[in-house]
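Propose amino acids for all 270 sites.
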């Protein structure tokens, strides 16, 4: 019997989950419609592109934005058992192993701005390095990860639609530097019987660079399995993942969108 190094042994046993230090992908997962396996180690990693210098101060929100964090209070969020308990200091908040948090308000089609920074000095590797995530409807994840000089499977790196689609390029900044996500999200549409009429779609700009354009989302983001849709309402909370790493966030805001342009509809003929 070949004796495997401990991380490989754990990966094979399923105990490793997504935080295994040597997790570069899986060869026993199902195939996505793209032809790649979920978390395929052979899927090409996006080319690295330098996005330019990090912003200093947060980018001020537009006048019609719903501000989710003003630098001081987490009142717009709730945690597992009531109030959100992530640490707030210095105009940002930080995951502290108290569990995921999500917005009290719910959103459908929207434009979302998020600023985040991974821990410095960097610790761990692969999925175990600066892991968090931004989940629309608490289930469609735009991955947050320290992907600066940190190899992992392509559909799990920073700005990936987790387990589905890698970003077009890797524009991840160094650990500790502030990074931005600007997302235009179109919620899925369901029939009354739960059938998907239209899948969700997302356009994502990472550090000012396009990484997903009107990308179809295949279903709820899951680890090692094929995504599926479960019917939900037209609005849902935005969740931030506590994956055990002290990832920081600041300057979160949302603009609700009318992507079907109902507000532009002509009056019904009389
Ligand atoms: Mg994550």
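Proposal:
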């Amino acid at each position: 019997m070949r004796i495997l190094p401990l991380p490989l042994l754990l990966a094979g046993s399923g105990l490793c989950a997504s935080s295994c230090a040597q997790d570069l992908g899986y060869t026993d997962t199902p195939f996505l419609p793209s032809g790649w396996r979920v978390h395929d180690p052979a899927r090409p990693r996006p080319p690295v592109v330098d996005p330019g210098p990090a912003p200093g101060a947060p980018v001020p929100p537009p006048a019609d934005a719903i501000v989710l964090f003003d630098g001081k209070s987490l009142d717009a969020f709730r945690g597992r058992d009531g109030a959100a308990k992530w640490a707030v200091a210095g105009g940002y908040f930080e995951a502290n192993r108290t569990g995921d948090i999500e917005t009290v308000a719910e959103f459908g089609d929207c434009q979302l701005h998020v600023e985040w920074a991974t821990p410095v000095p960097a610790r761990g590797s692969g999925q175990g390095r600066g892991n968090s995530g931004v989940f629309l409807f608490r289930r469609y994840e735009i991955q947050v990860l320290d992907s600066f000089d940190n190899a992992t499977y392509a559909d799990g790196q920073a700005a990936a639609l987790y387990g589905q689609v890698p970003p077009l390029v890797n524009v991840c900044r160094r650990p500790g530097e502030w990074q931005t996500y600007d997302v235009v999200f179109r919620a899925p549409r369901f029939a009354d019987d739960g059938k998907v009429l239209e899948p969700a779609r997302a356009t994502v700009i990472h550090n000012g660079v396009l990484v997903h354009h009107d990308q179809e989302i295949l279903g709820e983001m899951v680890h090692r399995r094929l995504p599926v849709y479960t019917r939900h309402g037209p609005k849902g909370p935005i969740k931030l993942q506590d994956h055990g790493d002290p990832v920081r966030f600041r300057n979160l805001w949302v603009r609700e969108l009318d992507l079907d342009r109902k507000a532009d509809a002509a009056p019904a003929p009389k």
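The pocket of magnesium ion is lined by residues 131-133, 143-144, 241, 243 (CB under 6 Å). DSSP finds one helix and 16 strands in the chain.
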